[in-house]
Amino acid sequence: MLRELVTVDDIEIGIKADNWEEAIRKSSERLLEKGAIETTYVDSMIKVLNENGPYIVLGNHIALAHTRPEFGANELGLSFSTLNPPVPFGAKHFDPIKLIITFSATDSDSHLMLISELATILSDTGIMEKLFDAPTKEIFYEQLLEGLN
């Protein structure tokens, strides 16, 4: 499913951000451009993070930016943004964040296979190091697909 959903154009390398809020706004731009999400979706991600803390931080240096579908998710969407320099999100043991995966889903079920594929990639520390260090979006994309094999 990831292979069909994500293209090289869904990847940004080396985003510069002064803080986690700016990082989320910048990492959301691709999904906004595609129409997968509305600006209300981005605002909701930031609001919920302010209210609940860094719940989107999944592990070492990785954040999965998302919120509830009713806040402006128009379609299933996924984008990847590496941060340079990495940005702290307030997750003590997992900061700073090097990779933000921005995710949108329109319901509670249609994305489960996609999340399963992502989990396989995220649990492979070798692949993750290659993704963190990818110098171009083309190389990032190749490494991402290698993680599915």
Description:
With 149 residues, this protein is α/β, with parallel strands linked by helices. It has a single domain (2-146), classed as Mannitol-specific EII, Chain A (3-Layer(aba) Sandwich). Helices cover 42% and strands 21% of the residues. The chain has helices spanning 2-5, 20-27, 29-34, 39-52, 112-122, 125-133, 137-146; strands spanning 11-15, 57-59, 62-65, 77-87, 97-104. Strands 1-4-5-3-2 form a 5-stranded mixed β-sheet, sandwiched between helices. A hairpin with a 2-residue loop joins strand 2 (57-59) and strand 3. Helix 6 (125-133) runs antiparallel to helix 7 (137-146). The longest helix is centred in the N-terminal third of the chain and has 14 residues, at 39-52. The protein is globular and about 35 Å long. It starts with a helix and ends with a helix. The model has no long low-confidence stretch (mean pLDDT 94). InterPro entries: Ascorbate-PTS_EIIA_comp, PTrfase/Anion_transptr, PTS_EIIA_type-2_dom. It is found in: Cytoplasm.
Short description:
It comes from Tigheibacillus halophilus. It holds the Pfam family PTS_EIIA_2. With 149 residues, this protein is of the alpha/beta class.
| Mean of pLDDT | 94
Strand content: 15-25%
Low-pLDDT segments, ≥5 res: none
Subunit arrangement of the protein = single chain
- CATH topology: the name is Mannitol-specific EII, Chain A
The CATH superfamily is Mannitol-specific EII, Chain A
Biggest sheet strand order reads: 1-4-5-3-2
Question: Globular, elongated, flat, extended or rod-shaped: what is the shape?
Answer: globular
CATH top-level class: Alpha Beta
CA gyration radius, whole angstroms: 14 Å
User: Could you state the order of secondary-structure elements as H and E?
Assistant: HEHHHEEEEHHH
What is the second-level CATH architecture? 3-Layer(aba) Sandwich
What count of domains describes the coordinates?
A: 1
Strand pairing plus helix content: what structural class?
Answer: alpha/beta
What's the end-to-end separation, in Å? 13 Å
